[in-house]
Amino acid sequence: MQNILVTGGAGFIGSNFIKYILKNYNYKIFNYDKLTYAGNLENLTDIEDNANYKFIKGDICELENVKKVLTDNNIDTIINFAAESHVDRSILGSREFIVTNVLGTQTLLDIFKDLKLEKYLQVSTDEVYGSLPEDRKELKFTEQNPIKTNSPYSASKASADLLCNSYFHTHKLPILITRCSNNYGPYQFPEKLIPLMIAKALDGEKLPVYGDGKNVRDWLYVDDHCSAICEVLHKGKIGEVYNIGGNNEWYNIDIVKLILKTLKKSEEQILYVKDRPGHDRRYAIDSSKIQNELGWKPAYDFEHGIESTIKWYIENESWWRKVMSGEYLKYYEKNYASKVK
Ligand code: NAD
Ligand code: TYD
């Protein structure tokens, strides 16, 4: 393995991953990204001159373009981060999710097959497993859990996973799948819970909490996701799925209160709004497989991770202000106008 195509590398996790892998390994990284609303090359300014890094603008659905990029650059490995990633957007309209997440993955798999490359890793999500009951804390998602999707986003990601599995079985391709819980950290687009709430708190605005705020998510610092992907890439058993998580369940409302407290803001800023349709109640990952078989474990505890994340958003206000202007504002109005009770 020498030359790696990272798709979606201008997004939140992809950009953190590129920095992580350049720092810790000696690969040549080709970042192939369409630069949708979520793709931001400012996430990568500190490494853009690195001799082992190259950005190429493009869509994973464009077969000929992807093929040319792979052959021109002697690429042997694909890590597919590229996706439409926000559940709320998938509720407002799911077409882009099917196009990029399903057809885009299928396009990459076909090219991977034709070119007989070395390894393909699909970055997936715990959301493919559906929702866990709130009152049965002993239950967590294992790799054996059936796929049971509830949002168009998770349905599109699950479809991609099933395609990957089918290409492994039918075409005997060297494919791996990772399924991670909710990530947080620097450069996360402020449409997702943690950065949105930090931005709203700093601006003295209302913080929109869906439903009763008692939905549970299992939070992992983004660098821990990146280290886990590297472990799976290097040591994972071909054809297998690896769950990644931090054993760190939080009620949404407690995260929101923690952010307000850290920023010394009043809980009066909290605004309960109409629930997200089909809102999954609880996610919790059992990551014992990757821990026991590959020796991975998270390096960050939540207390320090969230503190440094909040600090990062305070110190990088110009980054999120720029991101929150324009197209994003239009989306914000569309999503929240119908939710205010
Ligand atoms: P993101 O929305 O921040 O970034 C997605 C990136 O993909 C953007 O740079 C965008 O420009 C690019 N992209 C979109 N469509 C494309 C296309 N057709 N061709 C090429 N590039 C395209 O997403 P993220 O939060 O960084 O998530 C990355 C991956 O990790 C996704 O596959 C997501 O499903 C998965 N994941 C995310 C989380 C999380 O908490 N954010 C958790 C588990 C798994
Ligand atoms: P999100 O960051 O969108 O991730 P996901 O839906 O993929 O888990 O949302 C995390 C949780 O926060 C989820 O239960 C929905 C909730 N949420 C709110 O309560 N208010 C908001 O404005 C947003 C964006 C999310």
Instruction: Look up the CATH topology of the domain at 3-185 and 220-247 and 283-300 and 332-339.
Output: Rossmann fold
Rounded to the nearest angstrom, the distance between the terminal CA atoms is: 54 Å
Treating each run of at least 4 consecutive H or I residues as one helix, how many helices? 12
> Which series of helices and strands comes N to C?
EHEEHEHHEHEEHEEHEEHEHHHH
Description:
With 341 residues, the chain is of the alpha/beta class. The protein has a domain at 3-185 and 220-247 and 283-300 and 332-339: 3-Layer(aba) Sandwich (Rossmann fold), CATH 3.40.50. Helices cover 43% and strands 17% of the residues. It has 12 helices and 12 strands. It has helices at residues 12-24, 63-72, 87-92, 95-115, 152-171, 193-202, 222-235, 252-262, 288-294, 302-315, 317-324, 327-337, and strands at 3-7, 28-33, 53-57, 77-80, 119-125, 175-180, 182-184, 207-210, 216-221, 241-244, 249-251, 270-273. The chain has a 7-stranded parallel beta sheet, sandwiched between helices. Strands 7-9-11 form a 3-stranded mixed beta sheet. A two-stranded parallel ribbon has the order 8-12. Helix 6 runs parallel beside helix 8 (252-262) and helix 10 packs across helix 11 (317-324). The model has no long low-confidence stretch (mean pLDDT 96). Bound molecules: nicotinamide-adenine-dinucleotide and thymidine-5'-diphosphate (TYD). The site of thymidine-5'-diphosphate has 12 residues, from helix 6 and strand 8.
